[in-house]
């Protein structure tokens, strides 16, 4: 049972760290297939997509001044935001969170809006992530 729970959490962590990245540069075509696949993977892992989750949207920004402007713009749109310098290089990341159901169209539309607005400051949508506790793991724990 413990191995099952560890496996489920490992799958979700990999999905969150790698899979939910829908990197969108200024010139790229926006494709929701990665988002769709990740939502399906989360659902298969037992996550209730209809429940509200705290979804983090990452925005890549070229410098701190632009990052502060993007952060304020997103806060004005009722997101909770933080701004941090990336570990390597001179890039910055603005992480903006919103509590919402994990619904494909909403996630895609928010990323499109972020891409459009961040472009004004030399930034772009750099994916999304969500911390979840799969229902399967909870059910397995309750059974044993």
TrEMBL record:
SUPFAM superfamilies attached to this UniProt entry: Hypothetical protein VC0424
PROSITE patterns in the cross-refs: PROKAR_LIPOPROTEIN
Pfam family, one: RraB
Highest taxon listed in the record's lineage: Bacteria
InterPro entries according to UniProt: RraB-like_sf (IPR036701), RraB_dom (IPR009671)
Domain Regulator of ribonuclease activity B: 34-130
The name this protein goes by in its record: Ribonuclease E inhibitor RraB
Source organism of the structure: Paenibacillus anseongense
């Amino acid at each position: 049972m413990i191995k099952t729970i560890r496996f489920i959490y490992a799958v979700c962590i990999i999905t969150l760290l790698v899979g939910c990245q829908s990197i969108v540069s200024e010139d790229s075509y926006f494709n929701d297939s990665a988002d769709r696949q990740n939502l399906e993977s989360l659902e298969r892992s037992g996550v209730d997509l209809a429940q509200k989750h705290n979804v983090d949207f990452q925005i890549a920004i070229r410098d701190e001044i632009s990052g502060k402007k993007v952060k304020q713009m997103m806060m004005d749109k009722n997101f909770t935001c933080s701004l941090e310098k990336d570990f390597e290089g001179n890039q910055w990341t603005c992480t903006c969170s919103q509590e919402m159901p994990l619904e494909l169209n909403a996630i895609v539309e928010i990323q499109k809006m972020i891409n459009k607005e961040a472009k004004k400051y030399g930034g772009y949508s750099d994916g999304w992530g969500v911390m979840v506790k799969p229902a399967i793991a909870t059910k397995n724990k309750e059974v044993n």
